[in-house]
Fold this sequence. Notes:
Blueprint: H1 8-18, E1 23-27, E2 30-33, H2 34-50, E3 58-62, H3 67-78, E4 82-85, H4 92-102, E5 106-110, H5 114-120, E6 128-132, H6 140-148, E7 163-165, H7 166-169, E8 187-193, E9 201-206, H8 207-222, E10 232-235, H9 242-252, E11 258-261, H10 267-277, E12 281-284, H11 286-293, E13 308-311, H12 318-328, E14 332-338, E15 342-346, E16 357-361, E17 366-370, E18 384-389, H13 401-407, E19 408-411, E20 414-425, E21 431-436, E22 440-443, E23 446-449, H14 450-458, E24 463-473, E25 477-486, H15 495-503, E26 514-517, H16 531-547
Parallel strand pairs: 1-11, 3-4, 3-5, 5-6, 6-7, 10-11, 10-12, 12-13, 13-14, 25-26
Antiparallel strand pairs: 1-2, 8-9, 14-15, 15-16, 16-21, 17-18, 18-20, 19-20, 20-21, 22-23, 24-25
Helix pairs in contact: 2-3, 4-5, 8-9
Amino acid sequence: MSEDREYTFTRFDRICAKYPDNTAIVYLGERFSYAKLSDLTERFATGLNNLGVVKGDRVMIYIQNCIQWIIAFLGIQRIGAVAVPVAPIYTSYEIEYMVNDSGAETIICQDTNFGYVKEILSKTCLKRIIVTNLVDLLPVWKRVVGALFDKIPHGKVEMDEGVYSFKDMLKSPPECPEVELDPWKDLSYILYTGGTTGFPKGVPGNHIGMTSYVNDVTEDVAGDYLKEGEDVYIAVNPLFHIMALGLFMSIGLNKGNTTLLMPVPQIDAILRTIQRYKVRWFLGVPALYRMILENDRLERYDLSSLRYCYCGGDVLPVEVFNRWKELFGIPIYQVYGSTEAGHVTYGKLDKEPELMSVGVPLKSRQCIVADPDTLELVPLGETGELLVTSDYIIKSYWKKEDETARSYVEIDGKVYYRMGDYVRQDENGEIYYIERSADIIKYKGYRVSASEIEAVLQDHQTVIGACVVGVPDPKVGERIKAIVVLKEDARGVGGSELTKWCRERLAPYKIPQYIEFRDMLPKSKVGKLLRREIRDEERRRLEKEKKS
């Protein structure tokens, strides 16, 4: 089968046939071979099909990193359905919107967030709930020990009509019918990212879009540095994120290698796993690298197996880069991209990475740097907004024409996605990060939409205006600050009440850490919120505090 006709599952089939006995996944100490993973995936796909899920149907994955996540994702692809991975820490408020927007009639959730799903059931198009626990596929003795020591979180589940057990789904015989897919036209997934109007945007991805950058990473970035069938990668970042999912597919499943799957980023567990399994490939966000360096037990662990460390989600601070290189003798390379454009640039492994460089564009991605107001190309070496295009990606949002028009532009006959980040590019194609759009806040590697938080705050009956910005913080990237204007007759409303309001409607990483009250917000002549002005004001305040 030619590369442009392949999709995720045909590649997985081929690798399973080539390396059936290789360990594909190690999850909580339990090994799953490629043959075993293939069998479980086939059974789950058959179970989905038996429930009435068919090609094109959307299936939401609302669970954290675990072996079930991988089985679910591959099983959904196997029957030609569309995976909709979302953060397991989303609230019912967020999930309700995304279920209805995507049209998902099936959701796979953990027992610990089953309550959120039940809460929205009557208000959505959901027909089926598939429930699992993090340790469902582990041996009985491990589950018993975990329960004895109270190490396994459990949630209350009511097995009503339309509620199914993930484990029971795996009892289906592996007899899933073959499905004809067009990698260019048929969707593989819909991922959600922050919206400029306060609502998350669905980003549809076709099968060829994913395999295009997986090809680039596997062949051109990793290349001969990657040992096919022998290498070891640790997956710490959440798989619902395009960066983590793409590297897992590229370094792990695409080459018959072993992936150590971590359900939560617990530092000592990560370090023990690297030491025990001699991990060579690692991906983290700046906050994770900093947490490792600041761990007071770091010297107890042997991390000498590490060879290729990548950082994404935000620009790596210089001091973290230097400390890592000094301590381990190896550099940290950057990976850069977005949900809309997929993986875009990577640091080259054959040279020392340059500070503030996010690497060079992948072969399947074309990058230009343009003036953000005129969209005219800026001279080489000058700062402008990064725009990205590719023949392989879908250049629109899911059912959002206005958002699409704001984010995608046509230049010289090609449609580009506006990354919203300001960069410069040198004569060798290397891209250097300067700063991000005022609308996006980077907190612990998460891209947080300021507009989404503002919309939630403005839903409060006493709030007439809100401005959310990122306040620079060396440990987490940026902390979230909200500046709020209340109605004149508002009484007794403080930061704690608005924080509680946000906590009930937003995932934990989106909650403002600071709330400040003002009489007015800066706006342009046409009434547009001048968020950048607030950001600059916060930076000046921080600089003044450092000097004093």
